[in-house]
C-alpha cells in the first residue's frame, strides 16, 4: 500500500513538473506551396500559435491566406485555411506533425472564358502530415520550419479540360514564434 502511494505521489510530482514546463508561443508564418495540378506554385502567409504541453507533445493552430490558379487561369481559388495540428517531438527540436484543416474557399471563374459558371464560396475539409524543426533563438523566440503534405479534394466545376484536376499539395513553411 505504501509503495503504491509513493508511486502515485511520484507520478503526480512528475506530471506537475511537466505541466510547469508547458509554453505557448505565437507569431507569423510564411510558406510556399504548389497544388498537384495548379498552374504554378504560390506563396502564402498567416499566423500560428503553438502550445507545448510536454517535452514530447505539442499542438498548433494556424490561419493562412493562399491563392492558386487552375486550368490555365480559368479558375482562381482563394482560401483561408484554419488548421489544427498535433506535434510529437522525438528530439527536443525535431517534430512530426499530423492534423486537419477547414478551408473557406472562393472559386473565382474567369467569366471571359467560362461565362456559364458563377463564382461561389464554399468550405472543404482536408488533413495533413509532415515534420519540421523548432530552433531556439534565445529564451523567448524560435525559428520554425516544416514540410507538410496536405490531402485536400476540391469539388471543381465542369471547366473544359478540368475533369481530373488534383488539389493535394506540399507546403514548406517558416515561422518566427514568440513565447509567453
TrEMBL record:
Residues 1-21 form the signal peptide. The keyword GTP-binding does not apply. The keyword Amino-acid biosynthesis does not apply. Residues 13-178 form the Outer membrane protein beta-barrel domain. InterPro entries: Beta-barrel_OMP, OMP/PagP_B-barrel. Keywords: Signal. It comes from the Bacteria. Pfam families: OMP_b-brl. This is Outer membrane protein beta-barrel domain-containing protein. It comes from Candidatus Raymondbacteria bacterium RIFOXYD12_FULL_49_13.
Amino acid at each position: 500500500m505504501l509503495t503504491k502511494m509513493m508511486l502515485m505521489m511520484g507520478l503526480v510530482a512528475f506530471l506537475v513538473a511537466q505541466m510547469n514546463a508547458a509554453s505557448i508561443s505565437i507569431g507569423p508564418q510564411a510558406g510556399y506551396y504548389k497544388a498537384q495540378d495548379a498552374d504554378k506554385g504560390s506563396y502564402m502567409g498567416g499566423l500560428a500559435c503553438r502550445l507545448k504541453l510536454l517535452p514530447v507533445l505539442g499542438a498548433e493552430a494556424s490561419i493562412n491566406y493562399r491563392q492558386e490558379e487552375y486550368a490555365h487561369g480559368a479558375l482562381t481559388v482563394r482560401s483561408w485555411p484554419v488548421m489544427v495540428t498535433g506535434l510529437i517531438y522525438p528530439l527536443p527540436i525535431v517534430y512530426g506533425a499530423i492534423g486537419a484543416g477547414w478551408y473557406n474557399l472562393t472559386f473565382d471563374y474567369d467569366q471571359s472564358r467560362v461565362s456559364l459558371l458563377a463564382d461561389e464560396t464554399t468550405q472543404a475539409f482536408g488533413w495533413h502530415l509532415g515534420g519540421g524543426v523548432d530552433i531556439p533563438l534565445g529564451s523567448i523566440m524560435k525559428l520554425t520550419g516544416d514540410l507538410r503534405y496536405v490531402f485536400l479534394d476540391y469539388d471543381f466545376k465542369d471547366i473544359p479540360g478540368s475533369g481530373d484536376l488534383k488539389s493535394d499539395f506540399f507546403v514548406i513553411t517558416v515561422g518566427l514564434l514568440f513565447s509567453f
